Every structure is written in C-alpha cells, then in structure tokens.
Amino acid sequence: MPGVETPLEKWTGKVHEVTLGGNGRKSITVGGESTLPFLSFEAPIPHPPVVAIEVLDMEPQDWSPHLVSVWGDALKDPAVWAKKAVECGADLIVLRLRSAHPEAGDTGVDHAKKAVEAVLAAVDLPLIVLGPEVEEKDNEVLVGVSDVARGQKIALGNCSEKNHRTIAAVCLSDGHVAIGKSPIEINLAKQLNILLSDVGLAPESILMDPTTGALGYGLEYSYSVMERLRIAALMGDKMTAMPMLCTVGEESWRQKESRATEGLPPLWGDHQERAILWEEITAVSLLNSGADIVVLRHPRVVERIKATIASLVG
Amino acid sequence: MALSGIEIYKFLPKTNCKKCGFPTCLAFAMKVAQKTVDIITCPDLSDESRQALESAGRPPIKLVSIGADGKKLEIGNEVVMFRHEKTFYHPPGIMRRIKDSSPAETVAQQVAEVTEFKVDRVGIELSLNGFAIENDSGDGAAFAKCVEAVMAKTDLPLVLMSSKPEAMAAALEKSAASRPLIYAATGDNWEPMAELASKHGCPLAVAEPKGLSELAALVEEVNKKGVEDIVLDPGARDLGSSLNTLTQLRRLAIKKNFQPLGYPIITFPGTNAASVDEEAVLASQQVAKYAGIIVLDNFSPALAYPLLTLRLNIYTDPQKPIQVQPGVYPIGAPKESSPLCVTTNFSLTYFSVAGELEGSGHAAWLLVCDTEGLSVLTAWAAGKFDAEKIAKNFKEFDVASKINHQRVIIPGRVAVLKGEIEEELAGWDVMVGPPDAMDIGGYLKNNWSN
Ligand code: B12
Ligand code: SF4
To answer: What is the pLDDT of residue B397?
Structure first.
C-alpha cells in the first residue's frame, strides 16, 4: 500500500503579531501565522482572524435598504450603533469618519474627537478609526483622534504612499497602530510598509490594507496579491509580513448587486439573499488568502463569518 | 509536469543516428521538451520507452471528461497551486443534487430551475453544469426511471450516485452513452463498480474517507481493473477538513507528482451544512481551493449567481483580463442632449462605470475605447489610452452623430489628457470627470444640464 507522506512546506518566516486594545479595554491580537491560512495540519494557528463591524460617524445616505432595515435608528448615533455591533458579535469596531469628507459634511477635528470619545465610552472593544481618505482631512482629524484615544492602543488609517508621515508620527508618539493602504499591487504594499518602518514604527504596530476588490469587482486581484504577500512573508520577507485587513463590507455593499433592488434581471434572484451572499463570499475568499481582520456591515454576515472562522480553525 | 529535455533524453536510444533529422538524440530531446517536434519522429524508440515517457509526461492531475460530446464537462489537468503562478484551467463543474425518491413533478421542476438559469456577466453566460442523481430510494428500477426522466429534460452531464452495483447497472443501461460519472467505488463495492466503469467506458468516483493512504490504495486497485478516468472523494465534508485535505491532495499531485492521487476531486458542501449560507460559504471555498465538481443540495438564483461569479473571477487567467467589445454604449435611454463619457474596454472598468451611471439614473452615452482590456491607469501607463487613440475611437464609432453637443467627459485619473484631446478633436470641450465612477452621479448632477 503506497503510504502517503503528508506534504509539508518548509516556511521560514512568520507573520508579525499586532495587538489592539488592552489596559482596561478588551484586547485582540492578530497575526503570528507560520503557514498559509487555516492549514492546521502544517502548523498551529496562534490567533484566528477576527471580525470587525463598520460604524460611520454619520447616518449613511446611500446604503442598501437591507442594511438600513437591519440597523434601524442605530445608524443615527455611532455610540448606539457600536453597542448594537457588540451584540451582533463584533470582535472590534471600525469607526469611519465619513462626515469629514468634503462632499459629506466636511466636519472637523472636534466632531471627530467627539465621535471617537463616544464610541470608546460606549463599548470596551478594541477600536480602529479610518479617516475620509482625503489627505488634508485625514491628517487633521486623525491627529486629534490619536490624542483623545491615547493609551487605548487603537489603529489609525489610512496611511498612503503620498500621505503617511503625519499619521505614522502620531501613532508612534501615542502608542497606536498605523494602517497602510496601497493599490492592489505587491510591491506597492511592501514599499508602504518600508516607509512606515522608516518613520520608526515597529512591525508590530503596522497593519496592511492591500485594497479589497469585491466579488465580481476585482476580488481575484485582491485574492492573488494577498496570497503573494503572505507567501513572501512565510518565505522570510519581513516587509510583507504585516497582518492584513480587508474592507469587505464597504466594497461588497457598494456594488450594484447589493445596492440596487429594482430594475434587475429576475434571474438574479432574491435581492437580500444575494446581497448577503455577496459579502459572505467576498469575506470567506479573502480569509482563505490571508485576511486577519475582515470589516463587515451586515449582522447576518458577521454571524456566518464568525462561525466559518471557528470551523476553519477547528 | 512537462518533462525537461534531459528527462526525455533518458528514454531515447542514444545512437545519434540522425534519422529524426537532428544531429544528436539530446538535440532531439530538447526540441521534444519544447513541444516543437513529436516524440514519434524517432523511429527507433521502443514501445516500453514511449509508454514510460507518456506516463512520466502525464499531467500531474488527469483530465477527466464527463457528459456526451458537445455538452462535455472537462475537469482536472491543473498544474499550479496558486492562480498567480500561471492560471487555473478547468473551472469546477457545479451540479444540483436530485433524489430518485422525490415525486416526478419535483424532479421535473428541479431540472427546469437549473436549465432555465442563465445569467450574463461581462458578456459571459453563467449557468450550472448538470445534475447529480442520488439513488436515495435504494431501488434499481426507481433509480433508472429517475435518470431517464432527467435525461428526457436535459443533455447536461450527470453524476449517478448509488452504493449498489445492481442499481448503478440499471441506471447505466439508460445513460451510459452520455458518459455519466459513476459515484462511487468504495472499500466494499469497488470491484463491481470498476467493472461497470470499464464496461461502459464511464469515469468512476473513488470514495474513501478513512485517509489519503487508503484512498490511494483503492485508486490503485481500480487502476488495475483498467479504469483511468477517476474522480476522488476523500470525505472531508467541513470547512476545515476540506481546506486541509484538498490542499494536501493538490500538493501531492503538483509538487510530489504522486500519481495515485493525481485526479480531480468531487465535493458535497451541503452534506453537513445547517443552512443555505453555510453550504454557499463552503462551496465558495471549494471553488478556489481545489474542487473539480461541486454538488449543491440547495439551489437558488440568489446562490448560483454569486457562486458562478466567483468561479468566473478565480478562473480568469491573470495575464488575460476579460474585455468587453469597444463601441458606443447607451446607458439608460440617452437622447442627443445626454452626456458623453469615455472609458476603457477592461470589463471591470466598463462595468464599474456603466453600473454607476445606471445607478445614478442619469442617461448617458459611454464611448468604450479599445485598450486591449486594460484599466484606465494601466492602459494610460502602457500608452494604450491616449488622446490619439481616443480620437481614433471617436471617429471609428461615429460618436458625433449620436449627440447634439461637443462635450466629452473623461476619467478624472487621466485629467492630464484634456489638452491633448482638445488638440486632436478640434472644437470639442473636454470635461474632467471624478476619479472614481462612484462619484459620476454627483458630478453629472452638479455639472450637466441638458
Ligand atoms: C490590476 C492592475 C494591473 C494588471 C492589469 C489589470 C487590467 N486589466 O487593467 C496588470 C498586472 C496587467 C497591470 C500592469 C501594469 N500596470 Co497596473 N495596476 C493594476 C491595479 C492594481 C488595478 C487596476 C484596476 O483593475 N483598477 C480597477 C479599474 C476599475 O479602475 P479604472 O480602470 O481606473 O476605472 C476606475 C476609474 O478610473 C473610474 N473611471 C473609469 N472610467 C471612467 C470614465 C469616466 C467618465 C469617469 C468619470 C470615471 C471613470 O471609475 C473606475 C472605478 O473607480 C492598479 C492599481 C489600482 N489599484 O488601481 C495598477 C496600476 C493602474 N498599474 C500601474 C502600472 C504602472 C502598470 C504597468 C505599467 C506596470 C509596469 N511597470 O509594467 C503595467 C502596464 C500594463 C502593460 N501591459 O504594460 C500603475 C499606474 C500608475 C500611473 N499613475 O500611471 C497603477 C496605478 C499601480 C501603481 N500605482 O503603480 N496592472
Ligand atoms: S532518430 Fe532517434 S535515435 Fe536517431 S538521433 Fe534521432 S532521437 Fe536519436
């Protein structure tokens, strides 16, 4: 009988371990993998991936009715929204300062500070705060947020190749974690990690957002760039070994398949079911290519993906 | 794995007799490795060497085809662990399970739901691949009757599922010509099942959940019966066990060239699933991580459409982006006074822009330029999306005849082209749109008055 020898790979590198929260606040640690996602036959899984729920600092205007109906009035107040997110099983909260976007309200640093303080007070989960992704406003609001959240070890994002000094500097001084977001491209992701390290941030204080393409809208690009980044890390490249964060909810619910409910081919089937599957399938695919944090929007998806992670970790 | 010149050389007579037209056997071997000349050109090659060469040159995962000519499903013959290393070649067949214990009308309806399901995405038709008929009744006659009923409604490939050789034999009497997959040979029944497979010339699934060594041993027994078209079922019905087991199977075939397990895999994501979502998530994982056939217990358009989109994405050749036909596309019901936008024929780009325009409710004309399927910035960086090319597409698709104004909106990310385009297209006013298609609705609201 041909005995089958278990085919093990000899990986030499490991993913950095990044911890959020702590001293009074719940903490989570992600990363530390020494094999490809969930291959427990090859090596233990030190920290299973975690699920974040995305909360906006303003009532979203153009969200799918399926999201509006399930969250209801919580959408009007980030603290209430965050509390409800805890009940839905979130491991951490991602607060997006959408209102600071010039086209959405152009609110300033005071508004941002109030929103962050309210969420920090409302829940004891670790927190990630994302700016409106407009350079000057990101710097303005995130510097203020970094100050009010000092000691809570939150994560701040997004740093980019063109705009990372200010945010990285306050993360360094206030003890936070910086998130670098690069276009879906392995060398650009690595380059940004190098820039953040040059500012002085330790690898354990950097998270990577390699840019999420949703199912049908670039998923295969994200899927392959993340596999390449993770393989490079396992082969010893320290500058691609940062844990990865994927904005699955934002990208999945932005697409027509989830947003539109009228004027669609009947054969697309039930709107709600499809929209929920759109987020779930994007999430499970990117978890299998290396995501350590998936940021979701729909509570049913949070429940399904947490169960999926538990089953995969075994 | 394709053999190298040196490996081929070992099988040759090494007499350098030049009958093949090459100065030496080694030179000949090198050309065979590059597939520019066929091995049979060497007249002195012994039969044993040729067979040995063929099995050594066999793809690490055998190509197995299911179904009759014209409707064939081909699976297997994959050569890499990760799509970015080259590409994945044969997308998994996605089948719906039907039980022979179901009433005839239910069977008819379940078949119709699948055969009527056709959805178009980026110009490609998405549909399921066939049916897995399960001998749930345990009775041969009922099984054969159900197979016949399904075949009356569709010529899509079939998987016949029974543990009873006699029931399988009865079903094969009705269906062998359409080359169904026989599921399955197990430790208990592999001999009669292997005989049925070789008698009817049908592919055979080998199911052994005890372990990969046991599965390999069973495959070797079945090989001895002359059955070569095999599909593996290693059990592993949960997310974790499926990912770990299917990864090991792929590595054994691709990296270790372990031929007893060098076959495509069949999975059943619904078996242990407590909900449709749970089945969908496992099925999705199996699309990317290594299934050759996926049998769904639950079917609905809401599940099929995203699952087939995922299969399309994962199996797109990373080097060959999917393109749409260049031309002028009406979005909504545009009139002469509607705005004209320009974009590229990379499907992702086209569908992002077309989707946002439709979502914005603002009718418009969309000039899709031929950039050989590259996105806006990629094409611009590669010199395939510049003022000259845009002007050429303008004339080629007679854009001016569709509108009564001379304004064109270009992607915000290539604002730099404004001046050049205005030079190429005298009299035209080039408006710089937002960088992201998402903001086109807002942009048109503020900047376009019919
Ligand atoms: C995937 C990818 C590739 C793939 C090709 C994918 C494809 N089919 O285009 C590959 C790997 C082949 C590739 C190759 C190259 N790439 Co490339 N690639 C990317 C990547 C990661 C994603 C591109 C993509 O899919 N975008 C998604 C589509 C939907 O975006 P889009 O077409 O721009 O459309 C959006 C907007 O432009 C807007 N829009 C589009 N049309 C319209 C129309 C109107 C009217 C409006 C208002 C808006 C609008 O809406 C869309 C959605 O937001 C980007 C980085 C990134 N994340 O953007 C780099 C990127 C585009 N590539 C880049 C480069 C440099 C190249 C190469 C030249 C690299 C090299 N040195 O060889 C080559 C060139 C190709 C060649 N053959 O020579 C650069 C371009 C830099 C620049 N400023 O010019 C980028 C930005 C990466 C980077 N930052 O360096 N690339
Ligand atoms: S014909 Fe055959 S034996 Fe003769 S040189 Fe060519 S490869 Fe060698």
So the answer is: 94
**What per-residue confidence (pLDDT) applies to B17?**
95
Is the Cβ–Cβ distance between A130 and A179 less than 8 Å? yes
**Closest by alpha carbon to B284, among A8, A302, A269, A223?**
A223
ipTM given for this complex: 0.90
DSSP letter string, B89-125: -SPPEEEEEEETTS-HHHHHHHHHHHHT--EEETTEE
Which residues of chain B from 349 to 368 reach within 8 Å of chain A, CB to CB? 351-352, 355, 358-359
What would the mean pLDDT of A97-124 be, rounded to a whole number? 96
Specify the pLDDT at position B359.
75
What is residue B351's predicted lDDT score, i.e. its pLDDT? 82
> Locate tokens 């385009």: which residue?
B421
* Chain B, window 279-298: residues with a beta carbon less than 8 angstroms from a chain A beta carbon: 280-281, 284-285, 288-289
pTM for this model (two decimals) = 0.86
pLDDT band at A261 (very low <50, low <70, confident <90, very high): low
Looking at all shown ligands, the one closest to residue B346's CA atom is: 1
Highest-scoring range by mean pLDDT, A77-86, A266-275, B397-406: A77-86
How far is it, in rounded angstroms, from Cα B404 to Cα B338?
9
Give B253's contacts in chain A (Cβ within 8 Å). Answer: none
Query: Between A223 and B56, whose confidence is greater?
Result: A223
Rounded to whole angstroms, what are the CA distances from B102 to B42, B98, B180? 59, 8, 20
pLDDT at A1 over 60: no
Residue contact A278–B240, C-beta within 8 A: no
Report the amino acid identity of residue A208: M
Q: Which residues on adjacent β-strands are paired with residue B64?
A: B75
Average pLDDT over residues A112-116: 98
Centroid of ligand 2 to alpha carbon of B59 (angstroms): 25
By the CB < 8 Å criterion, does B84 face chain A?
yes
- The H or E element containing residue B205 is strand B204-207
- In this prediction, the residues of chain B whose per-residue pLDDT falls under 50 are none
B394 lines ligand 2 (CB under 6 A): no
**Closest C-alpha to A158, from A221, A232, A91, A247:** A247
- A97: Cβ contacts below 8 Å, ≥ 6 apart: A57, A107, A112, A115, A129, A130, A131, A132, A141, A142, A145
Atom of ligand 1 nearest to the CA of A225: 21
Question: Distances in Å between the alpha carbon of A270 and those of A142, A276, B298?
Answer: 40, 10, 14
